[in-house]
Amino acid sequence: MAEQNTTPQFPSATNLPQAITGAVTRQQHKDIPVTIHYLDSLNQKLHPEVTIWGAFGAPLMIPWRTIPGYLLYNIRNFQRTFLLNSTSITLIYTKQLAAPVMVYHEDETGQLLVPPVFIRGDLNRHYQIQPLEQYLTQFIGADQGTQGTFSQTVQQLHFHYQLNHEQQPFAFGSDNALKMRVAKTAYQAPDLTAKLDWQLPANSTWQIFKTVKQADNHAVWFNLGGNLWVDSLNTQLVNLTVTPATVPSTHPRPLSLTTAFKTSRVDQQPRQAKIKASPYFPISQWTQPYGQIVEQRLKNGTLVSCKQILTLDNGSEWAQLDQGYYVEIKYLDFLD
After folding, report:
1. Alpha helix stretches (DSSP H) within the chain
2. Are residues 71 and 114 in the same domain?
3. How far apart are the first and last CA of the chain?
4. How many angstroms separate the CA atoms of 266 and 326, rounded?
5. pLDDT in tens, 16-33
6. Which residues 6+ apart lie within 8 Å of 116 measured at CB?
């Protein structure tokens, strides 16, 4: 019997099955899975994980998620492209409180119908606010709309109503001024997270324009004009006789230091401007910055002439109009 050759026969590289060729190996890398995890700082799942696929070396677009009540603060295994040895990315979120939304329900003269309402919720969560039920038929509109998203900054919404003769605005009592027993920290809103970088001097007295009592902790806050607020700690309520404001003379006196702030800069270049206000709510004019509000208000779109612009040492800016009254710069749209 003829002897058989038992030497194993190996196919050449050109005859290898397609499944194990280098070309097919690269084809197998075409779809690389990467799983995205959404966790809090305690590794608790906040959102279902998401798996994405892509070719080796292709750009990797992370599917970001906005999670109400949380902020993204860290990323584990971050990568910009699909890699062979990396199959997961972890997004770490930290708990974050949202700033409140303050809602003012006002009549056509700017008087409050009820105490200001504080709306609280999770950061980035949607909110929708309804007009007061008892004044629903008198509701005429809201400056910034009735819905939005909770954010890291305090939001102030103004709801406007047109009352009939039998309806009366909310009354705060006879005390209309506040005396500082000590130097007081001021706030941009009635919230401890809205702290300003300066204080009101001890023994200074300020007119009260709005009063807020928070329902959750019963804290009382006072609005002293514009976006200037203080809490009631170390203060004394006083009653001041408010005299009717008269039109200033042609040559008004220098800014009174009863405002408790000094003028840090004066720009005396005359300028023309247009009032930028809510169509429902004309802006106030002041006898002096943080002084008394005069009866005449300025409607949106009114053309005004500015005699000078004052910058106070608290950073606020005021324009003196040609009639002698003052308005805050944020309500002006300069034309030159």
Report:
1. 22-28
2. no
3. 113
4. 14
5. 444 444 344 444 456 889
6. 102, 103, 104, 190, 210, 212
Domain count, the chain: 4
The three-point CA angle 263-247-304 to 5° equals: 70
Burial class (CB in 10 A: 0-12, 13-18, 19+), 170: middle
Structural domain contains residue 167 = no
From 78, 118, 128, 317, select the one nearest 218 (Cα to Cα). 118
**Which residue(s) pair with 157 in the sheet?**
103
CA atoms within 13 A on the CB side of 265: 9
Strand bridging mode 88-95 / 32-40? parallel
pLDDT digits (tens, 9 = 90+) for 91-126: 999 888 788 888 888 887 777 787 777 788 888 889
Domain that holds residue 84: 23-95
Same structural domain, 153 and 196: no
C-alpha 297/C-alpha 160 separation (Å) is 15
This model's pTM is above 0.85: no
In sequence order, which residues have a C-beta less than 8 Å from that of residue 76 and are 6 or more positions away? 89, 90, 91, 92
